DNA sequence: CCGGATCCTTGCCGATACTG
DNA sequence: CAGTATCGGCAAGGATCCGG
């Protein structure tokens, strides 16, 4: 679990601090765009505009915003080439790579359970169409 | 990756449909509360109020909302006991359990990299305090 | 090409009150 | 105890313009 129990041990102040930090990081990382960006980067080095094409559906603003956040957490590295027009490249750092592995697992899970989930949806949708007293 | 390239093969309509579904599921699942709820459930069977206590910080509304969503996707099972006062229990289904494993990995990652991330933050924060021309 | 800043819309989410 | 419905504030996020 991310959240630990409060045991009342001597230096639990440290524990709670680390805990809230974990929560914060978790919240940063557990968001759609961040995950998609990391997955899009993979082991590659991509420019800003390339990333925008890769992620598909992300807006200019969300991309920069998340890139800043990821850089701030040390998950990606940003390299600026002082040329004109500007060239900026993004790549995963080591922690970023490690995170990507777990995100890959998440993607695998999604694909492996597509069928089951689709079926479950049809079931609950059908149930919703029956039960309501507003039948007919 | 969740998003596949458009290759122009025969029945790519199916592929794109499955793809958009994957995206949708990914968006459902890649949200803070859903992840925390699944992690809180673990292998256990919990009542609504127990879940609310476990998740810490979640509101009544967000909890029900996400529980409905997770049930709709077949990741959790909802059992209602027709007693008074009402007793409703939630548990992970098999797909839910599988997902939990990958979420565990995410939690592990968070804890293992707490230090590196904290360090990275201090570095970029320090850099932000230097560079601005608004120095002093 | 990159990205900051601004405006404006949308919907998220919390608080509250009410049913079974 | 569990769940729905409604309202309101506020922040997320899209579109656009400008500046390096």
CATH homologous superfamily identity of chain A? Winged helix-like DNA-binding domain superfamily/Winged helix DNA-binding domain
From the N-terminal CA to the C-terminal CA of chain A, the straight-line distance is 46 Å
Give helix and strand order of chain A, one letter per element, not per position: HHEHHEEHH
Number of domains of chain A: 1
Largest interface: A-B, 48 and 48 residues
Examine the coordinates and then state which fold CATH places here, giving the name of the CATH topology of chain A.
Answer: Arc Repressor Mutant, subunit A
Oligomer: homodimer
Going by helix content, strand content and strand pairing, the class of chain A is: mainly alpha
């Amino acid at each position: 679990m991310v959240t630990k129990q409060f045991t009342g041990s001597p230096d639990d102040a440290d524990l709670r601090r680390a805990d809230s930090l974990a929560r914060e990081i978790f919240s940063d990382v557990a968001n759609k765009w961040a995950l998609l960006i990391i997955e899009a980067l993979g082991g590659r080095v991509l420019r800003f505009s390339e990333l925008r094409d890769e992620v598909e559906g992300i807006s200019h603003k969300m991309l920069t915003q998340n890139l800043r956040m990821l850089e701030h957490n040390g998950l990606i590295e940003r390299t600026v080439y002082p040329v004109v027009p500007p060239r900026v490249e993004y790549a995963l750092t080591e922690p970023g790579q490690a995170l990507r592995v777990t995100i890959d697992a998440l993607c695998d899970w999604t694909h492996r359970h597509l069928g089951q989930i689709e079926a479950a949806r049809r079931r609950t949708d059908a149930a919703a169409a029956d039960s309501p007293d507003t039948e007919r």
